[in-house]
Amino acid sequence: MTWLLVALVLVVAAAGLLRWRRPAWYWLTFGVALAALRVLVRYGSVMDACGLTVPAPRWRLALARMADRPVPRPRAPRILRVRPTRTGLVLRLKLRPGQDAFDVSASADRLRHSFGMYGVTSRELRSGVVELRMTGYDVLRRVQMPSLAADTGHMRVPVALREDGSVHYRDYRTVPHALTLGATESGKSVYQRNLVAGLAPLNVALVGIDCKQGVELFPLARRFSALADNPDTAADILDALVAHMEDVYRLIRSHQSISVSVPDAEIAADIWDLPEDIRPVPVVVLVDEVAELALFANKEQEKRRDRIITALVRLAQLGRAAGIYLEICGQRFGSELGKGITMLRAQLTGRTAHRVNDETSANMAFGDISPDAVLAAITIPAEARGVAIAGDSTGGWHRIRAPPHHAAAGREPLQQARRPHPAPARLGRLSSCTRHPHTRSGPSSRVGPDRRLNDPA
Ligand SMILES: Nc1ncnc2c1ncn2[C@@H]1O[C@H](COP(=O)(O)OP(=O)(O)OP(=O)(O)O)[C@@H](O)[C@H]1O
Ligand SMILES: [Mg+2]
């Protein structure tokens, strides 16, 4: 008996310790079973207390009256499925007549503490069927991504974890261009490095512009086809990309060979409609600290600025079908940066905001999309670095956090991607500049007037 008591105390102490130090392990060992039991046992009374029940149908009430039996109890949504996951539980519910998905999402917070879970979110799967995603612990405190393979054929990379425990993907085919905002030290560059690590194994050319003298992207330079660390090189690279885009459109035109017998759906309209053997490699252009490209101190710099912004606007407007995708990061990105900026911003469909210091900055990301997301972005605490609000293509938003890849850790997945780095012909010459980032002659010094980007490689 004493041994049993000692064993019980040890198990409870181990569970307590795990819950405190390693919530993810606690969840997998003890938490999931306890939570499933708690939810199933309390389900009826919690739904009743949260106002998520409907009275029994009239025929049952009449039958009970006639048979002199107790009045049937109000009915909660029927549980279709309970699925334990790595981070929580997923409940699929069939709503009763008269209920709607909004009732459930409005009660999410009440359900959260009634079931003793860390977070509850709901979404409607189809008419009358709602999915409740519950998390057992704060999954964003210590982000652990499940091991997932990037979706090689579809330009879709896992980049962060959402607060409901699901994976947040950056899908370039659905959302070609994106803007990431955040105050200094809020986690923008870490997010961008995660993107690079995710894109590394794909057949895609990466082009980087990092006007912080390259400190953020240069540790990952091995994987870049071209990398600029100052506005002059950036302007050359962007011009080369615009020329590359025009080449790709010429290629698509030449391949279209439209005749009356070709159905509309088969006419090539972007690079993904071309046969694989002639399809140009897609290009992802990563720009860190974009404001640096838009600032100027004299006439000459103003001309360079206009050249850069015009090229970016052209790439944002026309680049998608040519397989050119923009990923722009900055602290603010508003009209105070001069002409062309709001036009460029309007083309950046994907929005992510890390912690911002004022509402205006949050409005630059979400003002025209969702006021709730603006509020969520300004309430991210300063110590929660890397936490961000990400808009999705449906107009909704999620709280996300990327895993804290440090520059050194980020190199490992990049080194594993041993395939040759694809580079569009016009960027081919630049690619050699980035192979040895730590040599004395950095990329910017290797791209001189004698190495004109617009020359075919
Ligand atoms: N997802 C994350 N998880 C944990 N820590 C993070 C995360 N993202 C960032 N950090 C921490 O915050 C620090 C600053 O991050 P980062 O360099 O990405 O900020 P930034 O927004 O790019 O800042 P700046 O505008 O000054 O370049 C990192 O060194 C890291 O310690
Ligand atoms: Mg940064």
Automatic annotation (TrEMBL):
The keyword tRNA-binding does not apply. ATP binds at G182, A183, T184, E185, S186, G187, K188, S189. It comes from the Bacteria. It comes from Streptomyces prasinosporus. Residues 448-457 have a biased composition (Basic and acidic residues). The keyword NADP does not apply. Residues 164-363 form the FtsK domain. It holds the Pfam family FtsK_SpoIIIE. This is FtsK/SpoIIIE domain-containing protein. Gene3D superfamilies: P-loop containing nucleotide triphosphate hydrolases.
